Amino acid sequence: MMQVSAYHKARNDDIYIYSPLYHDSYDKVYAFSLFDFTPKDYVRSDMICGGTGFDITSKLPPEIESCPYDWSLYPDCDYSIIWFSRGCIRNCPFCVVRRKEGYIQSVEPKNLNPNGEYIKVMDNNFFANPKWRDAVDTLLEWNQPVDLQGFDIRLFDEEQGEAINKLKHYHRVKFAWDNPKENIDDKIELLLETVSPHKTMCYVLIGYWSTPEEDLMRVMHLSDKYKIDSFVMPYNKFDNYQLNFARWCNNKVLFRTRTWEEYQAGYDHSVEDYKRLLKKRERKKLDSNQKVLL
Fold first, then answer.
1. Which of 98, 135, 246, 287 is the right S-S partner for 84, CB 3.0 to 4.6 Å?
2. CB of 28 within 8 A of CB of 11?
3. Do 6 and 107 fall within a single domain?
């Protein structure tokens, strides 16, 4: 959207955020969608539509793709979004990245948000980028906190751990455990030599090639063995089990105060009840630790 805006502003066009009330007054309307499940009720036949949510093959024309970002569209935004690479070395059947962007290739990052206080690095597989070291150097030069959106922990090594340790992180370091049949314990343990558990998070894909038992196994294994929070990603956003499991796991008050079986049983407590129960359990744990220390 920001590149389309920059393109038209360079041609002295007036740019507006779309409102259906004024549809007939616009000369040209662009519609963007990232996800195919996003409602398209607002779309009209005279709109220029693009994005994976419309068509996986859609791309910006080269003359627009080469434009910088027009950050003035979002004056209240306090972060920058940056890509150092596009595509991926993997070809996971549940993911559209390889089909849409091809094999991984390095790209020049666009302009930073002048009002940005931190940087979201949006690379699909940051450390698979053949120029990831240059990307780390650039981030260090920019000297802003970094929010890495994710990396492939199966590639993780000590050099990457050193690189992560050099960066100032805005949010937790994120990796994924998509396939329950893969054992990534050795890589997790290597990561935790550099980053503490409370500063990490693991995306857990459910509903594609895993059973409910394998879903529960992964989130509990991460929590019990490594004290790492999971963020569950349902493959089917309309499946009741997947949505309920994600709600339970991703709400950490729920996750820490009741088991999955209890949540399924439909215990009806308010969020405040959950918070009080969590504090009570924390106090009991603290009292227990004090007794041990005494």
1. 135
2. no
3. no
